Amino acid sequence: MRKLLWLTLFCHVSSAVKHSLKYFVTASSGVPNFPELVVIAQVDDVVVGYCNTDSKIVEAKQDWGKEYLDDNPQQLEWYTAECSYNQPDLFKATIFRLKKEFNQSGGVHILQKINGCEWDNETEEGIGFHQYGYDGEDILILDLKTLTWIALKPQAVVTKLRWDADMARMKYNKDFLTRICPDWLKKSLDYGKSSLLRTERPSVSLLQKTPSSPVSCHATGFFPHRAVMFWRKDGEKLHEDVDQGEILPNHDGTFQMRVDLNISSINPEDWRRYDCVFQLSGVEDDIVTKLDKAVIRTNEGKSEITLVLQFSCKFIFNKTHNKPHVSDLTAPDNGAELSMRLYPET
Ligand SMILES: *[C@@H]1O[C@H](CO)[C@@H](O)[C@H](O)[C@H]1NC(C)=O
Ligand SMILES: *[C@@H]1O[C@H](CO)[C@@H](O)[C@H](O)[C@H]1NC(C)=O
Ligand SMILES: *[C@@H]1O[C@H](CO)[C@@H](O)[C@H](O)[C@H]1NC(C)=O
Ligand SMILES: *[C@@H]1O[C@H](CO)[C@@H](O)[C@H](O)[C@H]1NC(C)=O
């Protein structure tokens, strides 16, 4: 159930215009040559800010982000303090405690946090979220209604009780998630509107590894991330024999996604009854691609794209069961990068 919650929280796809501000904090222990802690800020899934404990410098990743920080120096100060000592201290203490609870003496351990808020520009409704993962498993989630932490693993109970008792921090978390975060999000949208509210249509292609593998409908280069893609048969949306991928970021600030169709039980003469539909929020025209052998590109010699950790934090969380095409994450053996096998971007 928790896994489901996680997925619906971060892979929401709907026609309502929801905006989000999210912070991803990743701390590692036992990883040589890698910053102890990395923080990424995203608005609408676009990376807008970055910092790590090695440099302790908060970098804006978009022109409008730089302008935003220039105009709001007190926020830059806040981010710098968070990145330089507040978060590192908290994470260090928490990893120390978790290692003890999990009976771990050494090795590589990763503690991650996602917090932030979503805001619906029509209803003006917002939700805040704050949760932690340890070594790829969800361990703690804040319940904003009861203002208590929920331990998702027995080993996290000690931390939960400690954090529940810290009233000042709890009050701050609530204020941050329900008031400060939505306020900063709205301000960001204002500064970044020419870029965040633009639309870019993707190129869509059909890919297949071998003649018997599923056919992957792959869209890349779209913006914003509010998009849906599905397979149809005779114009009816299919729920069976499809495998829905997640929306993933490209290096150029656009997004990609894919949805696979298992063709093993489809007769060749029925292929023409199938098509793949891509819909982008704010754009009327759908992109429809017919299932046709002639247009399928085989995926032999696919390129391996290495996503640097800071742009892919959220994929460290254990979701291997629903991502057959993003091959299993390899533990960072050089400490700095995670490799993922993705379809080529173009
Ligand atoms: C903790 O680890 C030690 C050493 O490996 C082992 O002897 C002990 O049984 C473990 N305790 C628990 C509670 O797992
Ligand atoms: C909400 O966002 C959409 C898309 O950017 C825009 O068309 C609409 O006018 C906005 N609504 C309000 C109330 O600002
Ligand atoms: C991911 O979750 C599965 C099932 O819950 C588990 O068997 C597997 O060991 C986990 N992998 C990691 C890297 O934690
Ligand atoms: C496709 O469907 C067939 C039969 O329904 C099944 O045996 C096979 O495992 C499926 N393949 C994938 C990749 O899901």
TrEMBL record:
Signal peptide from the UniProt entry: 1-16
GO cellular-component term (any): extracellular space
Gene3D superfamilies on file: Immunoglobulins, MHC class I-like antigen recognition-like
Stretches assigned to the Ig-like domain: 202-289
InterPro entries: Ig-like_dom (IPR007110), Ig-like_dom_sf (IPR036179), Ig-like_fold (IPR013783), Ig_C1-set (IPR003597), MHC_class-I_related (IPR050208), MHC_I-like_Ag-recog (IPR011161), MHC_I-like_Ag-recog_sf (IPR037055), MHC_I/II-like_Ag-recog (IPR011162)
Record's keyword terms, sorted: Glycoprotein, Signal
Highest taxon listed in the record's lineage: Eukaryota
UniProt-listed Pfam families: C1-set (PF07654), MHC_I (PF00129)
Entry's transmembrane regions: none
SMART domains: IGc1
GO biological process: immune response
Family, similarity comment: Belongs to the MHC class I family.
Record-linked PANTHER family: MHC CLASS I ANTIGEN TRANSCRIPT VARIANT 1-RELATED, MHC CLASS I-RELATED
The protein's name in its UniProt record: Ig-like domain-containing protein
Organism: Seriola dumerili
